[in-house]
Amino acid sequence: MASPTFGAFGPLIGVVYVSSTHCRFLIYSTKNAEVLTFHEIKLRQIVHNAGWLEYDPLEIWKNTQECIETAYRSLIILEINPYDLVAISICSQRGTTLLWDKSTGNPLCNAIGWNDCRTSTLLKTILGNINYDADYLRHKTGLPLSTCFSALKIRWLQENITAVSDAINEGTCLFGTLDSWILWNLTGSNISGVHLTDVTNAGYTSLMNIHTHQWDAKLCKFFRIPMQILPRIRSNSELYGYIIGGALNGLPIAACIGEQPAALLGQLQTKVGENVCIIDDSCFVLLNTGEELIESSNGLLSLVALKLGPQAPASYSLEGAISNAGATINWLKQGLRISTEINSNDNVVEVLSTFLGENSMISSSCSSGMLNAECGLAAKRSEITFVPAFHGLYAPYWRYDARG
Question: Where is the Carbohydrate kinase FGGY C-terminal domain (predicted)?
């Protein structure tokens, strides 16, 4: 429980942050937003087939607990009163999809990563029934039909995992993105777990109506997903519940937000026209459009960016997404053994023409001699075009079938 008086750093806020690569718990001073301490654990990514990406939900929960406990102990070592913690928030990658049994609290399957593209065949079938119009639902969701959003992942799990279909029939199945899973466990799992999500994570499922900020019955019917498995949708800033057990027992969970909107807020890009670019394994560019919801005709996503309270107006964003950015560098290093260290030779960083011809991108390349030595290929730099479409192409093309 929080202390009635506070130390030199004032009230402290904890943040559970689960990205696509790491689980972290960070503790901030509210006086100056300084990170006082944190602990992180690298996430194990499970790849059974090309284009697939999974996570072990129990491992994520275990890592979350370890990060919280370790950061808490670090406060004591730093002689900062841990009782100065007044609340925590949850920030996570969007779109990663998980189903679990509410009676046992156990996952029914591994979590499917947001950029997993196993649903390509299912998407092709659906598109075939609607004249291949990827924007068929955009007026309701703000999104094109794509493998990266949760709806198709839920449908795939229903059709391919017996434990999932059985739990749905028995009424014990719950769906959540990673924020919901962590919240459920922090608040007591199958004993007293709270089944909620926030508007930014819900908006990345293709099941939320972008205008009402609630689950849409017609969207659920379109994807054949039972509405009873869905968590209730909340704003980004309100009381979600209280932590049960562990070092932070009794502490309120007072905020929840998706990773990319969190960057927009964290960089204080809260005015119309302000923007942020996030580059890690993937890349996202978000433009704040304020209270105006703009439907893109150029392949961008229209999403809720922020809703800072139950009665607060929503701010929207236009978002461009690239599935593979930093992950491409790792692929070049591990797959082709190409040096990607800047200035390691005069050919490392080049401007290469993309498949559009006129446009260009910064990418790693190598001399033809390096290619011969390392890759067994004979090619000149000018002949190389590298399109990192390991999970298809996202904005603005939304080509689930593209590979590179």
Answer: 276-404
Rounded Cα distance between 149 and 52, Å, is 14
Quick check: 181 and 109 in contact, CB under 8 A? no
∠ CA 276-282-288, nearest 5°, is 25
Q: Tell me the two tokens of residue 317.
A: 């964003």
Give the pLDDT confidence score for residue 186 in this predicted structure.
Answer: 99
**Stated pTM of the model:** 0.85
Residue 203: name the closest of 325, 338, 283, 305 by CA. 305
Please give the pLDDT value at position 43: 96
Q: Look at residue 325 and tell me whether its pLDDT is greater than 90.
A: no
| Structure confidence by residue, pLDDT tens digits, 350-376 | 433 333 333 333 333 333 333 344 444
Distance separating alpha carbons of residues 340 and 331, to the nearest angstrom: 10
User: How would CATH label the architecture of 12-267?
Assistant: 2-Layer Sandwich (3.30)
Q: Please give the span between the terminal C-alpha atoms of the chain, in angstroms, as a whole number.
A: 52
* CA pair distance 26, 41, nearest whole angstrom: 12
